[in-house]
Amino acid sequence: MDIFELADLAGQQQRSGRRYVEFLRVPSLSSGIYVLPTGATDTQQPHSEDEVYYVVRGRARVQVDKEDRPVEPGSLVFVKATVPHRFHSITEELMLLVFFAPAEGSAQARSVRTHP
Questions:
Q1: Is the dihedral of CA 4, 20, 55, 47 positive or negative?
Q2: Annotated domain spans of the chain
Q3: HEC per residue, 96-108
Q4: CA 29 → CA 1, 25, 36, 62, 78, distances in Å?
Q5: What string of pLDDT tens digits covers the 116 residues of the chain?
Q6: How far apart are CA 104 and CA 84, in angstroms?
Q7: What is the pTM of this model?
Q8: Domain over 19-111 is classified CATH 2.60.120.10
Q9: Alpha helices in the chain (DSSP H)
């Protein structure tokens, strides 16, 4: 069993200097913490895996394909694989828990075939 404490994860992310830090990876799932400062630009590209975002803190809007909605602490956002999405209009630093299924990058790796 693995247990993660949000305060520890937040500290790890902050010390890393990166916006996204993965803390769990198994073949069927990966998870990380993603932090976007107030006013930041979310430059992520669509992923080859389904994902769920859980808003821990902050306020912003999220655009998923052509739909645009506000998010706040407690919001859960599901994004189907390959669908364009981004967070924007970030009015309070946004801390998100991110869950990929299967693990981030693994669906794309499976779709790439090599020939002998």
A1: negative
A2: 19-111
A3: EEEEEECCCCHHH
A4: 15, 6, 22, 23, 15
A5: 999 999 999 999 999 999 999 999 999 999 999 999 999 999 999 999 999 999 999 999 999 999 999 999 999 999 999 999 999 999 999 999 999 999 988 876 554 333 33
A6: 16
A7: 0.89
A8: yes
A9: 6-16, 106-111
